[in-house]
Amino acid sequence: VIRQHMIPIAMGRNETRCFLVLHDCTRESKQQQELLVKNSIIKEVHHRVKNNMQIIISLLNLQKYQIEDVNVRKSLDESQSRIKAMSLVHENLYVTGNFSEINIKDYTNLLIDNVKKHYSYIPNLEIKDNVIDDFIDLDTAIPLGLIINEMIINIIKYAFPNKIEGIVNINLKLKDDQIIFQLK
Questions:
Q1: Beta strand 16-24 with 124-131: parallel, antiparallel or unpaired?
Q2: Are residues 8 and 18 in contact, defined by beta-carbon separation less than 8 angstroms?
Q3: Residue 58 in contact with residue 36, Cβ under 8 Å?
């Protein structure tokens, strides 16, 4: 593909010349098309991974309602929560279109909402977050999400045995390429 631009240049009273600029954008256009295709494929992969995880969650849910043992049901709930923590990364990537990093504050808020949904039987559960509004790479996001998820669940299970009320404070910040994470 060759783009051309003609620029008229006035040389005098009755004389005008044209300056012709030709730009071969075949390679550039091909690279842009390849990038668009690559991004579409990556977006579709993340969407499918998220959907597959949702199917697993649904299957566990169906299984859960066939089991009478309360402890086994709670274990299935926790497994669903872990899978959802991973699924939320792919959901975030799909929605934002950013396939290299994830906003940790947004992701943490999604994790908190997910945990609250699973522990809705604690009427006065409050989870407060003080999480930096910054981005982390995918290799860090999934393990961090699983750690946050596990720690919140463990606090809820063991710090609030009467299941009436509780407050969980989450602090997370980035400092010198390290993640400083605290729950209390």
A1: unpaired
A2: yes
A3: no
- For every residue of 81-130, DSSP letters joined together read HHHHHHHHHHHHHHHH---SEEEHHHHHHHHHHHHHHHTTTSTEEEEEEE
* Virtual torsion, Cα 27, 32, 33, 36, nearest 10 deg: 160
* Backbone torsion region of residue 77, taken as left when φ is above 0, otherwise alpha when ψ lies between -120 and 50, otherwise beta: alpha
Stretches where the chain sits below pLDDT 50 are none
Instruction: Kindly report the number of other CB atoms within 10 A of residue 60's CB atom.
Output: 15
HSE at residue 130, side-chain half, CA atoms within 13 A, is 9
For the whole model, what pTM was predicted?
0.71
- Burial category of 53 from C-beta neighbours within 10 Å (exposed 0-12, middle 13-18, buried 19 and up): buried
Residue 168 pairs in a beta bridge with 127
